[in-house]
Each structure stands twice: as C-alpha cells, then as structure tokens.
Amino acid sequence: MQNENLKRMIRLAGEFFETKNDPAQISINAISIARLKRLHPATMTERRTKKGPIAWMLVIPTTRKLMRQFISKQINEQELLYNTPLRTKYDALYLCSALVLPEHRGKGYASKLTIKAIRSIQKQHPIKYLFYWAFSAAGKKLAKSAAKECGLPLFRKKS
Question: What's the CA gap between 150 and 115, in Å, rounded?
Fold first, then answer.
C-alpha cells in the first residue's frame, strides 16, 4: 500500500509536467536525485502518511548568474541543475515544482514544505532571490506566497 501513493505521485508528475516529452526539464532519477542532494539536503522534501507520500516539493539552490540565464531562456532546467557549482554559496533559489495528491490539496502542504526548505537552505546560504517557472495558477500562487512569507524578491521565467 505504501508504494501506491508513490506510484500516483510519479504518474501525476509525468502527466502534469510532461517531462518525457521535454528533455530540457529535469527528470527525477537516481542521477538527478544524487545531484540535488549534493547541492543541499533540503532540495527534495515530502509529506507522508502511512500510505506513502501525499505532497512533494523540489527546489534548487543556485547562483544569481544562473538564475538570470534561466529566466531569460539562455539555459534550460537541466542546464540549471547541472551547471550549478557544488560546494559554493548560493544566493538564488529555484522553486522548481510542488505536487499534492488531489484529495490532499488545499491544506497548505505545498506551502509549508516550500517555506521549510527555503528556511533550511538559508541557514547555510545567503539566499536573496527566488525564481520560478509556473505551469499553473496554483504554482504561481505558491511562489508568490513563499516569496512574501520569506521577504524575498520573486522572478519568473516566462513560458
């Protein structure tokens, strides 16, 4: 039963972000997970029940220079992840994605996970900027709410 929610989350992510049809987006696999964990342990967080994950969030700490390249479409999401240097101080944070199973939406899980990740990363890095690429109105709302809560400017990549 525990893997059922995980399977649903993976299916939901694939359907929503269509990563199989867009190789420029980050595909979550063993290599990308290892890279994310090396950047900071709080890059991937989730809310779980006995049945498995019900909410999942991904952020990427990076540099302002790479943030500017990403939002101006000079680099894609994959390049943002793999061009971000290791073992440096990060001043920008990409609010990459958040997913909540439909029956658990509207309870603030994505917001709480995002704020917790931002604050955790801020303990080691001087994060001064947040940025996002919204796929939905809910994603845009989440990014704006997180920026307001953390008192940080927010930048958006236009589709």
Answer: 7
Quick check: helix, strand or coil at residue 137? helix
pTM for the model stands at 0.87
Q: Quickly count: other Cβ atoms within 10 Å of residue 117's Cβ.
A: 24
Q: What is the pLDDT of residues 93-147, one digit of tens each?
A: 999 989 888 889 899 999 999 999 999 999 999 999 999 998 788 899 999 999 9
Point out which residues pair with 100 in neighbouring strands: 55
Q: What distance in Å separates the CA atoms of residue 112 and residue 99, rounded to the nearest whole number? A: 12
Distance CA 15, CA 97 (A): 13
Q: How far apart are CA 141 and CA 134, in angstroms?
A: 9
